[in-house]
Amino acid sequence: GQNIDQPTEMTATEGAIVQINCTYQTSGFNGLFWYQQHAGEAPTFLSYNVLDGLEEKGRFSSFLSRSKGYSYLLLKELQMKDSASYLCAVRRGSTLGRLYFGRGTQLTVWP
Amino acid sequence: NAGVTQTPKFQVLKTGQSMTLQCAQDMNHEYMSWYRQDPGMGLRLIHYSVGAGITDQGEVPNGYNVSRSTTEDFPLRLLSAAPSQTSVYFCASTPAGGSSGNTIYFGEGSWLTVV
């Protein structure tokens, strides 16, 4: 199997910045994804990294270091609606529809 | 454009019963897959398909069958339901070409309880 680790829970206050880390060990690495999942809903795509560096998209940014097997998702200007589970997923090889997911990080944003 | 549509949304089965979870996508995506999500376990791949007529096993295929007779449809069959198959099931599709790393698009999920 794949080893994909992320913290189980995190808390933060509205307006703050939070960083959710993800480490992975895999062969044939072909991209890392971050998804957001609200309770009772489907995961929705947030970001994708395949090369080292930072990808910024509005309040959300994602970073990847392939040599370290490390990624983080950075959420700025937190809002109550950001309370959700954040899923880190890795793709191996060329099978586009096949992802390996971490167990998710439950983020709670307090007022 | 409906995206990925799953039915039913909720289902209760008795142990030993069989059923099919339906999945359809209208985006002409080549790749389709089924995941299950259990508390504390994350999403795990059951079966996937790289195109019509082609399927393969994922991480947890036992107890499930799939077929892909058309590009649009990818049903998941539970042959003889067991309590261990109580879970939330997500169907997903992925385009072969495109931006954002060919991201996976998920259906809304099917909540299955086996008693």
What distance separates the N and C termini of chain B? 36 Å
pLDDT average of chain A, as an integer?
93
SS class of chain B:
mainly beta
The assigned structural class of chain A equals mainly beta
Q: Total number of helical segments of chain A?
A: 0
* SSE pattern of chain A: EEEEEEEEEEE
Low-pLDDT segments, ≥5 res of chain A = none
Helix amount of chain B: under 10%
| Mean pLDDT score of chain B | 92
Ends distance of chain A: 39 Å
Count helical runs of chain B.
0
Shape field of chain B? globular
Number of strands of chain B: 11
Radius of gyration of chain A, CA atoms, in whole angstroms = 13 Å
* Biggest interface: A-B, 24 and 32 residues
Overall shape of chain A: it is globular
How does this structure look, described?
The complex is a heterodimer of chains A (about 110) and B (about 120). Chain A has about 110 residues and is mainly beta. Chain A contains no helices and eleven strands. Chain A has strands spanning about 5, 10-15, 20-25, 30-35, 45-50, 55, 60-65, 70-75, 85-90, 100, 105-110. In chain A, the strands form two sheets. In chain A, strands 2, 4, 5, 9, 10 and 11 form a six-stranded mixed sheet that branches. A five-stranded antiparallel sheet of chain A has the order 1-3-8-7-6, with no helix packed on it. The termini of chain A are far apart. Chain B has about 120 residues and is mainly beta. In chain B, about 0% of the residues lie in helices and about 50% in strands. Chain B contains no helices and eleven strands. Chain B has strands spanning about 5, 10-15, 20-25, 30-40, 40-50, 55, 65, 75-80, 85-95, 105, 110-115. The radius of gyration of chain B is 14 Å and the shape is globular.
Characteristic key phrases:
heterodimer; A: 111 residues; mainly beta; five-stranded antiparallel sheet; 0% helix; 59% strand; B: 115 residues; seven-stranded mixed sheet; four-stranded antiparallel sheet; 11 strands
